[in-house]
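User: Predict structure, ligand copper (II) ion.
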Amino acid sequence: MNFIVIKRNNVFKWVVVIFIITSAIIWYSFQAKALTVFQADKTNYREIHMVTGEFATKTAEGKEIEAYRWDPGTIVLRKDEKVHLKIFGVNGQEHPFYIEGTDIQGTVQKGKETTIPLQFNKTGTYRLICITHPDAEHNGPMIAYIVVID
Ligand SMILES: [Cu+2]
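Assistant: Predicted complex:
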């Protein structure tokens, strides 16, 4: 018959071995968890929310002036980051838009949310322009700036 004999002077060695194994398991579990969170961030789209707004007032002469706006007017993305830009139409019936330097285009309608998938592989500033309200002469400028950084 074979017995596992733990000699008294070996007890300290066993404690050290068990301590190292336990530490390794805890460290590995923590690493695995951290990695999962990182991967989730990589595959999920980050959501950025925007609305269409309107500034309206009267001048001293009683003339009504107004400007439609994307709000917020500037958003920041990382290069290659996957983002869903969700724009909800509040003011104005309809805002047909395009993003300069891309083939992205669409329309935001009152009471509806438009989702625009974004992913830029080049840094720079891209303008989201409403075709109906591109400048002050057309109740704008309804332009938002998409800033893509490294
Ligand atoms: Cu507009």
